[in-house]
């Protein structure tokens, strides 16, 4: 991918991810978008949310994607870089604008509206990849949002996976099913094929019910065990499940003291989980870290703003008492 800064040495980040990051507008007063005269200007995108979360937890991480060479694109680029994420393979382009999403919460239900057709990120293709950058990582994290953006993005997602596998880089895949971007019949074969190619599959239980067209947990587990990946199933009633060929491990959630904004919880989970793996914890302990990070994210407005540091996570895991004064 065209760079905006000097190319770094081959020894790059341990965890890399790519995809679309958009400007985000939200009402500042709790009203619906239609009735609010003031909007918060933020940004978000599943992959950059994960990258920021990993960085705050002390991980060495990189994010790349395409942003418009416009005020919001420049803001996003600088903000992600300021969070300690390597953006040396990201691109600001004058060819297309930065994508936009607007979000509102009415009566406890969140609604998201996308304005991303023909955005800079939707024009991403495999030609923008730096193979050496991918080869130098330990984990490539991708989501099912990228292949939903355009045909070139779908091809790019599969090419990134191919390059990772070629160089022995583990592939982490969160399907992140977005039915406002494509229908389930179009999404299903693409997401299931990516799941087959992944080393780590990170679906939500509701997503699995749609992908496998069943409500039966035993049938779902049977399908997951046909994969070569270890499956981490989010969204259980009180726990996250680690599903392998011969075992299921349930890892309890951490209770959130308050729920302010549920968007970004899954990305926070992925960040915590991936950092746990990078610290060589086993899957269950890495999931425990992911569960904790996800519970902390939902207590703050925004997609990534509430992402904790490793010191904060470690203190909670080890029950270190907070000294206020």
Automatic annotation (TrEMBL):
Taxonomic superkingdom: Bacteria
Residue span, Carbohydrate kinase PfkB domain: 15-309
GO MF terms, alphabetically ordered: kinase activity
Matches recorded under Pfam families: PfkB
Record keywords, A-Z: Kinase, Transferase
Matches recorded under InterPro entries: Carb_kinase_PfkB-like, Carboh/pur_kinase_PfkB_CS, PfkB_dom, Ribokinase-like
SUPFAM superfamilies (alphabetical): Ribokinase-like
Family from the record: Belongs to the carbohydrate kinase PfkB family.
PANTHER family linked: 2-DEHYDRO-3-DEOXYGLUCONOKINASE_2-DEHYDRO-3-DEOXYGALACTONOKINASE, SUGAR KINASE
Protein name, entry field: Sugar kinase
Lineage of producing organism: Bacteria, Bacillati, Bacillota, Bacilli, Bacillales
């Amino acid at each position: 991918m065209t760079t905006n800064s000097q190319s770094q040495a081959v020894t790059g980040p341990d965890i890399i991810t790519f995809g679309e990051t958009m400007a985000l507008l939200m009402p500042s007063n709790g009203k619906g978008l239609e009735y609010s005269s003031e909007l918060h200007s933020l940004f978000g995108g599943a992959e950059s949310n994960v990258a920021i979360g990993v960085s705050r937890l002390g991980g060495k991480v990189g994010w790349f994607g395409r942003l418009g060479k416009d005020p919001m694109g420049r803001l996003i680029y600088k903000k992600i870089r300021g969070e300690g994420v390597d953006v040396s393979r990201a691109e600001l382009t004058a060819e297309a604008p930065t994508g936009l999403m607007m979000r509102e919460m009415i009566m406890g239900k969140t609604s998201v509206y996308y304005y991303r057709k023909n955005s800079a990120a939707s024009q991403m293709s495999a030609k923008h990849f730096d193979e050496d950058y991918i080869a130098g990582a330990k984990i490539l994290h991708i989501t099912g949002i990228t292949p939903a953006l355009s045909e070139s993005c779908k091809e790019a997602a599969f090419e990134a996976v191919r390059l990772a596998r070629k160089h022995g880089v583990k592939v982490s895949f969160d399907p992140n099913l977005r039915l406002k971007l494509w229908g389930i019949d179009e999404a299903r074969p693409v997401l299931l094929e990516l799941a087959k190619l992944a080393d780590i599959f990170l679906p939500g239980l509701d997503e699995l019910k749609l992908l496998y067209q069943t409500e039966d947990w035993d049938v779902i587990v049977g399908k997951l065990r046909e994969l070569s990946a270890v499956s981490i199933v989010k969204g259980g009633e009180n726990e996250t499940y680690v599903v392998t060929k011969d075992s299921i491990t349930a890892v309890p959630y951490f209770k959130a003291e308050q729920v302010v904004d549920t968007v970004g919880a899954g990305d926070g989970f992925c960040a915590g989980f991936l950092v746990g793996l990078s610290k060589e914890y086993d899957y269950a302990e890495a999931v425990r870290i992911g569960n904790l990070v996800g519970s902390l994210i939902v207590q703050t407005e925004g997609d990534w703003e509430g992402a904790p540091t490793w010191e904060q996570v470690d203190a909670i895991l080890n029950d270190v008492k907070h000294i206020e004064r």
